[in-house]
């Protein structure tokens, strides 16, 4: 399931051009219209350039970008989002699809056992460092299919319980069809008082982008409700 991710991490070459997800630039007008209906700000750097959406959740600003990937395990275009939530900065939670987690772990293990590798590769994703820092956690209130598709890592299990609510987990499972398959790279993070989303934009269509935005705004709401600094006192 995760062979493509492993090939990308090992630097065995890019996918053939015809297998890369189609560009969303042709849909720029539709993206702009949708953003307007949602009350989001929208900007574009022109054909082939970065597109940005901006909004507010619980009074906090968030931004989502669509553009060239910043990770070698993502092909085509990347959706990434960020919001400064003003919540407990000590809370650290990472949700990652299992195929990506397993591929990163295999890469980290191969580096550790490779006696010829004496220095760290500066191109390796920081997600590999997070895997070594945080423990995987779980709980019974979320259905087994969720745990089969995603892994949740956290500094403390209580922080993960407070953030990954049942509505948020349900959204991550209910992608509009055809939707991203379980092996498509996907990450949702809570670090240093900020929420992040990073995923491969596959399939590159409006329903996928709209659902990703809905997941991220739900994640922001859940973080503010469950991990605000007031609650941490």
Description:
A hairpin with a 2-residue loop joins strand 2 and strand 3. Helix content is 38%, strand content 22%. Helix 1 runs parallel beside helix 3 and helix 7 packs antiparallel against helix 8. The chain contains 9 helices and 9 strands. The chain has one domain. With 233 residues, the protein is α+β, with helices and mostly antiparallel strands. The termini are far apart. About 4% of the residues have low confidence.
Keywords:
single chain, 233 residues, alpha+beta, 9-stranded antiparallel β-sheet
Q: Give a short account of the largest sheet.
A: 9 strands, antiparallel
- In what range is the share of β-strand residues? 15-25%
Class of secondary structure makeup: alpha+beta
The helix/strand series, from N terminus to C terminus, equals HHEEEEEHHEHEHHEEHH
The spatial strand order of the largest sheet comes to: 1-2-3-4-9-8-5-7-6
- Ranges where pLDDT stays below 50 over 5 or more residues in a row are 13-22
- Report how far apart the termini are: 44 Å
Structural domain count: 1
Characterize the overall form. globular
Tally of strands: 9
- The percent range for helix content is 25-40%
The Rg value, from CA coordinates, equals 18 Å
> How would you state the average pLDDT, rounded?
85
Count of discrete alpha- or pi-helical segments spanning 4 or more residues: 9
């Amino acid at each position: 399931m995760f062979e493509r991710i492993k090939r990308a991490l090992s630097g065995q070459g890019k996918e053939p051009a015809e297998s890369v997800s189609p560009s969303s630039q042709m849909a720029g007008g539709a993206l702009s219209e949708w953003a307007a209906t949602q009350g989001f700000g929208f900007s574009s750097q022109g054909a082939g350039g970065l597109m940005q959406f901006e909004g507010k959740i619980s009074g906090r600003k968030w931004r989502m970008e669509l553009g060239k990937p910043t990770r070698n395990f993502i092909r085509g275009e990347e959706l990434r989002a960020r919001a400064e939530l003003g919540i407990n900065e000590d809370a650290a939670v990472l949700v990652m699809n299992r195929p990506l987690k397993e591929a990163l772990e295999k890469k980290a293990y191969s580096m550790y056992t490779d006696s010829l590798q004496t220095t760290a590769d500066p191109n390796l994703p920081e997600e590999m460092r997070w895997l070594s820092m945080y423990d995987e956690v779980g709980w019974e209130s979320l259905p087994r299919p969720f745990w089969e598709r995603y892994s949740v890592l956290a500094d403390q299990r209580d922080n993960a319980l407070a953030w990954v609510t049942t509505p948020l987990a349900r959204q991550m499972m209910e992608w509009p069809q055809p939707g991203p398959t379980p092996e498509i790279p996907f990450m949702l993070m809570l670090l240093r008082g900020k929420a992040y989303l990073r995923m491969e934009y596959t399939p590159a269509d409006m329903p996928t982008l709209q659902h990703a935005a809905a997941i991220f705004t739900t994640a922001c709401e859940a973080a503010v409700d469950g991990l605000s600094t007031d609650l941490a006192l």
